[in-house]
Give the backbone structure.
Amino acid sequence: MAEVDVKKQTGEQQRGQSLERQRQGELQRRGPYSSLFSMNPAELFSVSPFSLMRRFTEEMDRVFQGAGGRREELALWSPAVEVTERDGKLEVVADLPGIKESDVKVEVTDEGLVIQGERKREHEEKREGYYRSERSYGQFYRLIPLPEGANPDQAHAEFRNGELHVSIPVPEQRRNVRQIPISTAPGERKEAMSQAAGAQQGRRAG
């Protein structure tokens, strides 16, 4: 049963990583060809030949590594997360099938609990006179807001059986119970008094 570190992170660091994730997401949405072949002539002349060659090499590497649609599929994948609160703790369970502990990172930032990592998929096919190997990669990211007063210093995370379990102490909410008296409407009060008087007279007559 392996343990995953829970780290604190400043808001400035988180904003920097958010911009980097946004940049990577834009590159993934463009596809393997569009970032080069959708450039207008002005952009082509403004970029150095060395930069163009590097970008072309990187994108062709992604194509031959079997990126294509599978890369898009992996990039859009998001793990299922269940959040419950009990016994003074916030329990978070993330379903991460087929993902290694070393590919998962857990942090507590100013925005909340961050679960992120990389999902890898490898496919190998061998037949007589034929061999094919594909590798696909995609990143995932989940942000779970934490309630006020949560204590990240005592947070604990475990990775077992393809599931990430994170426990963070939170202050228990005090529930004040106050009884509210029920009053009778004026009209109903008079009717009830007359019925009571009539019943009393009936008992006297009997």
Notes: The beta strands are 2-3, 6-8, 81-86, 89-95, 104-108, 113-127, 130-144, 156-160, 163-169. The two ends are 83 Å apart (CA to CA). Confidence is low (pLDDT under 50) at residues 25-34, 66-74. The chain has one domain: 2-169.
